[in-house]
Amino acid sequence: MPDLQQFRMTIDGRAAGSETFTVLDPATEQPWAEVPAATQSEVDAAFAAADAAFAGWAADDDARRAALRRAAEKVGVHLDELAGLLVREQGKPYADALGEAQGTVGWIQWFAEVEVPKSEVVTPGEVLQVRFPLGVVAGITPWNYPLIQSAWKFAPALRAGNTVVLKPSPYTPVATLRLGELLAEVLPPGVLNVVSGGDAVGVAMTTHPTTAMVSFTGSTAAGKSVAAAVAPDLKRVTLELGGNDPAILLDDVDVDAIAEPLFWGAFTNNGQVCGVAKRVYVPAALHDRVADALARVAESVAVGAGSEDGVRLGPINNRPQYERVNGLLEDAVAAGATVRSGGKQVGEAGYFLTPTILTDVAAGAAIVEEEQFGPVLPLVAYDDLDAVVAEVNASKFGLGGSVWSADANRALGVGRRLRVGTVYINGHAINHGPHVPFGGARWSGIGVENGLAGLEEYTQRQIIYGNGADL
Ligand code: NAD
Fold it and tell me: Which residues form the active site (predicted)?
């Protein structure tokens, strides 16, 4: 086996880890890093450290702001290093990885600087609302955006006065472990602990008696397990889960103008984004033109290892996901779907699949009904817009949806009818930054991340009746 890079967990401000597992590079399928597989006693130690750090951390908001500013600065001087690790473990192109590392800084900065109201008057002179932190937060993240997803959790949780135990996905633990080491240099010990391991470590975190809240991002199936795991203790929980976002094209769209933004609204990060378009509803009269236009964009995109110059799409992150996406594609084709572009492996090794546009997909096909989370996009022709809206609203998924039209206000009229967490007009998976709340309806989640609303998820609201006291 080649020399593996070694990474450690951060527990109570110190390096930790006894047992290990290896991390594969999805572009080569070769192991390149060795990381800790947290044992139960290490998980216990992380929660004990977070618990011990809580009272001091919760006591001083100015100190928290200052510490988060130092954290943003620290990440900012390690952007290239963190981006390189992301490319290696996640597969994404370097430019995208750098963007993710920069976004991580931006998120930490925003939560450091945001003005958090100390209290709100409910009845003048009589009733006041305040908020207090919950305690130790368990943050659990997926493998598509490991670094920024971690910041979505620890930055608001810490600013609100909680302490954190964070666990990245076993497919992409490395950049987050390195982040833990870097932040241990600027945060008090125990405030942010980073542990790594498989799903069982996640279970140990959600059921841990010290955990006050679980902030979970991942699949809907795992999210339901988390909801069940926190129920006996009524732990607080936010769940950011799967999506199956529709992009609905109206009959007046300018096909050539929308092809490029629609393509990237679906294929960003190789389609491995909760909130990208995962099915496109096209007026029957425009169907072939839209399919051709999307296929042209797809064929112009360079696919390869994220470390290669000019590559826009890397490999799928891991073998189970690669097999799942290929399986959905094969099932659709066996049932009569047409591959308009892509559908091909690239090179000898690695989980590559060229961006695939599918048409003539059978009604009820899994590729339309379920979340594919990969570079295969089905087009569904429609005649009846009301039926499309009804179908979207009947879906168990409700993360987001977009409507595309030459008349933005006409699109908005349709968009307002969608029962989803985010509506986009003439775009998809747009993200204006940390101040915008994000969350899903139905099986796409509970609660929101980002913005003040996201920070408030990490607090308990308290109403105080003063009865003559100075409020
Ligand atoms: P996953 O659910 O398999 O794993 C996510 C994390 O949860 C990992 O760290 C994993 O180890 C842990 N985990 C798994 N089972 C657990 C359990 N029972 N208890 C506690 N922890 C557990 O998801 P994934 O495959 O890593 O990520 C892809 C999924 O994440 C997709 O469905 C995607 O839509 C979703 N996602 C959602 C959002 C959002 O904001 N809504 C963002 C990104 C990804």
Answer: 240
